[in-house]
Amino acid sequence: MRINLLLITLLLFVAGLHPAVAKPMPQNLKLIGEAELKVLWFRVYNARLESPEGTFVSESMPLLLTLEYQRNISKQKLLEETRSQWQRAGIDPHDQALWLTSLNELWPDIRRHDSLSFYQDSDGYGYFYYNQRYLGSIRNNRFSRAFLDIWLSDNSDFPQLTRQLTGRLPE
Fold first, then answer.
1. Which residues pair with 35 in a beta bridge?
2. 55 contacts: CB under 8 Å, gap ≥ 6
3. Phi-psi region of 149 (alpha: psi -120 to 50; beta: other; left: phi over 0)
4. Under DSSP, is residue 147 helix (H, G, I), strand (E, B) or coil?
């Protein structure tokens, strides 16, 4: 029993999960862009990207990505889709496993009109919020970049959504 607790604690430490210290959701950020994700005719979520200046330069700056879901989505489905996106992007499988374990601890099931937000601070650390309430953090720069790249990378699955979020294409 002690060994299991020690292993779980060690895994969470290595993965960079920090759920205990609440960080308030950033305020007074300026909108860069917003977009709606539809798959076929199903509305999945409305996305919004914000920064202190209201401009997008790169994924390595302070950014707040908020997804307001338009349908119920289980935590398991969110994890599967995140894994799929990371596999497509060529993220190291070891990193994927660590990060997905951390996300499994943080993320809830999503109901219609819930929001899930991710804030990357100026140090590159990431913080999650569910309906504007702090969930926890993953203090790993590589994680933050890999996570944001799902939406912001030039080779994302949804390039028009990326262009709208980053302010490079009108809605």
1. 47
2. 32, 167
3. alpha
4. helix
Confidence (pTM): 0.85
What's the sign of the alpha-carbon dihedral 60, 164, 127, 97? negative
Q: Which residues of 12-35 are buried (b: 16+ CB within 10 A; e: fewer)?
A: beebbbbeeeeeebbeebeebbbb
Given the DSSP bridges, would you call strands 63-69 and 42-51 parallel, antiparallel or unpaired? antiparallel
pLDDT 10s digits, 84-99: 999 999 999 999 999 9
DSSP conformation class of 167? T
Q: Alpha helices, DSSP H only, in 31-154?
A: 75-89, 93-106, 141-152
Question: What is residue 148's three-state secondary structure?
Answer: helix
